[in-house]
Amino acid sequence: MIILFYILISNFIISLISLIGIFTLMIKEKLLQKILLFLVSLSAGALMGGAFIHLLPEAQEKYRDGNMFLIVLLSFIFFFFVEKLLHWRHCHKGECEIHTFGYMNLFGDAVHNFIDGLVIAATFLTDIKLGIATSLAVFLHEIPQEIGDFGVLLYSGFGRKKAIISNFLVALTAVLGGLIGYFLSFSIDRFTTYLLPFTAGGFIYIAASDLMPEIRKETNLKKSLVSFAVFIVGILLMFLVKFIGHE
């Protein structure tokens, strides 16, 4: 039961990030854009580090036939397809184009958060340290994403109060995903084994196709170097979690 507690509390804490929209209202737009660049950089590093330092090595120990890499590739393709299908807009800057209505954005987020919940459940069931590392990577990614999602809802016509409440309710689907993932692991053979490389593929896709292109848009050399350094810090955070885990 202690594992279930870890899964539920981790997902609930991550869900609370959806309330970050309240605080963005107190920050000037110019300052928010500067902060977002570094948050995106930190998130990209954490996701890459989580995939290559934690998830893939753990998955490789469970696979002996080479299928792990096929699952990573299929996961990458799956996330690409879902992004196209649902028109996910991880809009990290306020002036992004909005091609979909706010409700479609909420639906896409619900699917995304539910998958996060499944992933966190699977990693905690594999190893508590792996669960903590994965939760940290998801947590750091959710900060810039939730700020962007909040902006999308406002631009699509939601009032501030409605946007904050809607974002939070949708974020709670991560808790549902965690709960279902926990019980699925007892009924589906090798559930966690398959989900580890699947998660790694998703982390790599989000970092490479969504976050890193945002970082590359920065043309100022000084800011670019600082954002690159923050990206490395995100990777080092994952190293640190693994190092502490072996102590």
UniProtKB/TrEMBL annotation:
Localization: Membrane
Pfam families recorded: Zip
Topological relation to the membrane, as annotated: Multi-pass membrane protein
Cellular-component GO terms for this entry: membrane
GO MF annotations in UniProt: zinc ion transmembrane transporter activity
Membrane among keywords: yes
Top-level taxon of origin: Bacteria
Keywords in alphabetical order: Membrane, Transmembrane, Transmembrane helix
Record GO biological process: intracellular zinc ion homeostasis
Transmembrane segments: 6-27, 36-56, 68-86, 168-188, 194-213, 225-245
InterPro entries, alphabetized: ZIP
Designated name of the protein: ZIP family metal transporter
